[in-house]
Specification:
The chain is an alpha/beta fold and about 300 residues long. Helices cover about 40% and strands about 15% of the residues. The chain has a single domain, classed as Alpha-Beta Barrel (TIM Barrel), CATH 3.20.20.150. Its EC number is 4.2.1.44.
Length: about 300
């Protein structure tokens, strides 16, 4: 189905140690995390909060285990701070990732996000961009795209629960308002299904602009609780809304088929933030790897 020289498999460290809630997995070391990634059969990783920022130290630790860096999350504040503030942080982040050999930079706008607020109901309080915020976001992302291109890199925008770009309609606005040469899309199955969107429709519509993929599954019974109990995003994570492919309700076979037919090149990143005390990250990594092998032939 896929050319193994063009598609690589990574897994995010967020199942081992959570960036937004450091108490989840606080006892897990960086070395344990990357060792279990390699042992479970993955060849890449995104960057977590325990990863050394010294590129030589990080390269050595990863190379010992046969791992590469696929990308890393970047929080932009284009709607709430001057562009110069975001650009300064972005350049530092870009240069770190470039040194690590990454080709894409994951960007998500956090200027009005509620995803990090423990008590804010996720659906009732979802932010909606004003016209001015859309203008700042679209123009700002184009500028970040130019900065990425200076290093031969792309930005991939991460639509995300609890932000102003969550729904299919909001993704449409983002895609229509930006240059495909400057702004690409990160396709995340879990966030689309969580939001109530048709994830396959979004995939088919924008497959030519998708240059990074997060493979995330959903436990729908928890999503229903998030609605009925007015839970926040972080509460949803702790309750187990997300899981790895093959453990939730999403059938990834048609996802892989669409991407394969389109000749997708890049990383597939398994990403499922769970409480490692409840969902053993190594066990779930092995489960995800087995499912992808059986479903995508990778």
């Amino acid at each position: 189905m896929f050319n193994e020289n063009q598609v690589k498999l990574a897994i995010a460290p967020i199942g081992w140690t959570n960036d937004d809630m450091p108490e989840l997995g606080k006892e897990v070391t960086f070395e344990q995390c990357i060792s279990e990634m390699a042992l479970s059969g993955f060849s890449g990783s995104e960057v977590g909060n325990k990863y050394p920022r010294d590129t030589e130290v990080l390269k050595k630790a990863l190379s010992l285990r046969g791992l590469e860096i696929a990308s890393a999350w970047f929080s932009s504040f284009l709607t709430s701070k001057p562009i110069e503030v975001t650009a300064k942080s972005f350049i530092e982040h870009r240069d770190f990732l470039h040194e690590m050999g990454a080709k894409v930079i994951v960007v998500s706008e956090q200027g009005n996000s509620i995803q990090g607020q423990m008590e804010t109901p996720l659906f009732a309080n979802k932010p909606v961009n004003t016209e001015e915020e859309w203008k700042l976001l679209l123009e700002g992302l184009s500028s970040l795209g130019d900065l990425a291109a200076e290093k031969g890199m792309k930005i991939v925008y991460h639509h995300h629960m609890g932000t102003g770009v969550q729904t299919a309609i909001e993704i449409d606005r983002l895609m229509e308002g930006t240059d495909p040469e400057k702004v690409s899309l990160l396709y995340d199955t879990g966030h689309l299904v969580f939001s109530g969107e048709d994830h396959l429709a979004v995939l088919k519509k924008y497959v030519d602009r998708i240059h990074h993929v997060h493979l995330k599954d959903i436990r729908m019974e928890i999503v229903e609780r998030v609605h009925s109990e007015k839970m926040s995003f972080l509460q949803a994570v702790k309750a187990g809304a997300f899981t790895v492919p093959g453990d939730g309700v999403i059938d990834f076979k048609p996802v892989f088929e669409v991407l394969s037919e389109a000749g997708y090149k890049g990383w597939f990143v398994v990403e499922a933030e769970q409480d490692p005390a409840i969902a053993n990250p190594f066990e779930y990594a092995v489960k995800a790897r087995k499912y992808i092998r059986e479903t995508a032939g990778l």
